[in-house]
Specification:
single chain; binds heme C; electron transfer activity; transport; heme binding
């Protein structure tokens, strides 16, 4: 009985996931990834201000935002889908033809922001600063290649 229920549940979940990816509209994928990057900027900006001394360094706030940034870095990749490069987007179509390079850039971003979140736990700006610069480099590297 329990086993049957489990099988039923798994089937239902699989079906839902299938439908979700099959029915996603291009504009929804574009809005989603742009929204995620807006949130990335929302947190990355204040981090940069603290690193550069434009605002006072607050270890707790820095750590909170760095953790959110690391979580956000996991989110945009799945929305770069075929058919989502022609309208109202700054994403270049070569993301599809240079997929491995794009994915590597996304992984660099994820790793660098995870390392920034770890460095933030020290509360020491001297070890945070290089981790922040490394993360900023991953933004630029990808934008230079894949953003209009
Ligand atoms: C692996 C590639 C990649 C990485 C890494 C990356 N971006 Fe982007 N970003 C893009 C692409 C592609 C777009 C254009 C998305 C679109 O218009 O569909 C974009 C768009 C944006 C936007 C504009 C969002 C909007 O439409 O208003 C901002 C802001 C942004 N990125 C900030 C950042 C910051 C800050 C980082 C690093 C902390 C970063 N990105 C890292 C690829 C990347």
């Amino acid at each position: 009985m329990k086993k049957m229920l489990l099988i039923g549940l798994t089937a239902a979940l699989t079906a839902t996931a299938g439908i979700a990816s099959a029915q996603v509209k291009p504009f929804e994928a574009i809005e989603y990834r742009q929204g995620v990057f807006k949130a990335v900027k929302w947190h990355f900006g204040p981090l940069g201000d603290m690193v550069k001394g434009k605002t006072e360094f607050n270890a707790e706030e820095f750590s909170r935002r760095a953790n959110l940034l690391a979580a956000l870095s996991q989110m945009p990749g799945e929305a770069f889908l075929p058919g989502t490069y022609d309208k109202k987007t700054a994403a270049l179509p070569k993301i599809e033809t240079e997929r491995a390079k794009f994915d590597a850039g996304m992984q660099d971003f994820q790793q660098a922001t995870a390392e920034l979140a770890t460095a933030a736990q020290s509360g020491d700006l001297n070890s945070i600063r290089p981790a922040f610069m490394a993360a900023a480099k991953t933004c630029k590297a990808c934008h230079d290649n894949f953003r209009d």
